[in-house]
Amino acid sequence: MLIAIIATIIIPIIVFYEEIDTYVDDNDDSKWIHSGPFSIDREEYLLGHKIFLVAEGIDENDKGSIILTRINDDGSQKLWKKYNFNGAKKSGFNIYFSPVLDETRNFCTVEELIGNYKIIFENTEYEDIELKIIHRYLPGMEERFEPIC
C-alpha cells in the first residue's frame, strides 16, 4: 500500500519534470546569437527590452572590451556602453544593456534609439554580433520613451 502511494506521487512528478525540461514555446521569439563564448538572446528587440549577453568559457588568454554601438545611417557608430573583460580573471559572466533615453549619451528621442546596433569584441578575434531595436514597445513601456532633450 505504501509503495502504491509513493508511486502515485513520484511518477507524475517525474513525467511533469521531463515535460518542463523538453518544453519549447513556439511563440518565443528568442533565438540565441553566438560569437565565440558570447551570446545574446535574440536579434531583434522592442523598446524596453533588455539585451542580455551571456559569456561562458572565455579562454584565459582572452582580454578585451565588449562595446555596444548604434550604427548611424551614414555608417558611423555611436557608443552606447562599454565593458572590459579578462578571461584570466573570469571565464564567464552575464551582463545586460538597457537602451533607454539618456541625455548624457545623447540619446534623446526614440528615433535616436531605434535602428541597427553592433556588439563589438574589441582586441579579440570574435565576430561582431548585429542586432536591431525596432519601433515597437514592450507593453507598458511607452511612458519611458518621451523625448528628454
Structural overview:
The chain has helices at 2-22, 110-113, and strands spanning 33-35, 38-40, 44-47, 51-55, 63-71, 77-86, 93-97, 115-122, 129-137. It has one domain (29-145): Immunoglobulin-like, CATH 2.60.40. The model is unreliable at 13-27 (pLDDT under 50). The protein is built from 2 helices and 9 strands, in the order H-E-E-E-E-E-E-E-H-E-E. The radius of gyration is 21 Å and the shape is globular. Helices cover 17% and strands 38% of the residues. With 149 residues, the chain is of the alpha+beta class. The protein has a 5-stranded mixed beta sheet with strand order 3-9-8-5-6. It has a 4-stranded antiparallel beta sheet with strand order 1-2-4-7, with no helix packed on it.
What's the topology here?
Elements: H1 2-22, E1 33-35, E2 38-40, E3 44-47, E4 51-55, E5 63-71, E6 77-86, E7 93-97, H2 110-113, E8 115-122, E9 129-137
Parallel strand pairs: 3-9
Antiparallel strand pairs: 1-2, 2-4, 4-7, 5-6, 5-8, 8-9
